[in-house]
Amino acid sequence: MAPAKPKSYMAGSNPVSKFEGAFVVTKHAAPEGRNIHFHVWEFFRVVRGSLTVEINGVPHQFVESDGEYALPPGPHHCLYPTDGQPKGAVVEFWLGATPSGSMAELNQAFFENWYGYQEDILLHGVEPDPIQVMAMFDAGDSYLSPPAWVPEPLRHHIGKFMGVVLGRWIGGMLGYAPFYPEWTTDWAAACRQMNLCSTQKKFAQPNAQENIRASYLERGVDIGNEALYDEHGGYENCTAKKTK
Q1: Are 53 and 24 contacting, i.e. CB atoms less than 8 angstroms apart?
Q2: What is the pLDDT of residue 13?
Q3: Sorted alphabetically, which SUPFAM superfamilies does this protein's record hold (predicted)?
Q4: pLDDT surpassing 80 at residue 135
């Protein structure tokens, strides 16, 4: 196990295309895996394709005509492309959340880093690390849900306990950052958030993003969406632009 080491520079890309074009998201995308929010309302609207939202174990399908849906704090949930769609189908949707009123926020930085990490796992063969996942989720005021057989309210509290203790405190001491310069568009805001936690202050380096970006450009490596498209030979109906 080891902290994430981003394989590409995607900060500033908009729209963001993930998982070989399967997800196209403006501003930010949804986290996979069952999770729970304690403070925020999460809302989304499908633009293209069909999205399944599993809420407390019950799947609900959403398409463009369904409009916007608001999910209150509390339910265990996960989002994924609906099964049975044509091969190569794209699921495009908007996703956002209300302010949490706490140190952690379900914001753009969380979505960028979570999906950046997922992309490295799926496309670059990176082994997933549970501590890294919990560090990212905790920073987004989002916590992994234990198995459904765990009784409530214990199920809620176990997820948050693991996120804070393992993800934030122990993870921070072991070098697991919740945000990475290569994936975070608003790096200054991410640094401000990390500065609020004693174990994560060391990751809040204001000049880190500028230095990493310069390193990519000096090596002639494309940054933004094109870094992914060029590596895999391009995707149909997608336009990649360098963010130089």
Answers
A1: no
A2: 65
A3: RmlC-like cupins (SSF51182)
A4: yes
- If one compares 42 and 193, the residue with the highest pLDDT of the two is 193
Q: How far apart are CA 164 and CA 147, in angstroms?
A: 18
- Give the least confident one: 33-47, 81-95, 143-157, 204-218: 33-47
Q: What mean pLDDT comes out for the span 34-63?
A: 80
| Size (the chain), residues | 244
| Nearest alpha carbon to residue 120 among 243, 19, 233, 188 | 19
Q: Which 3-state string (H, E, C) describes 123-149?
A: HHCCCCCHHHHHHHHHHCCCEECCCCC
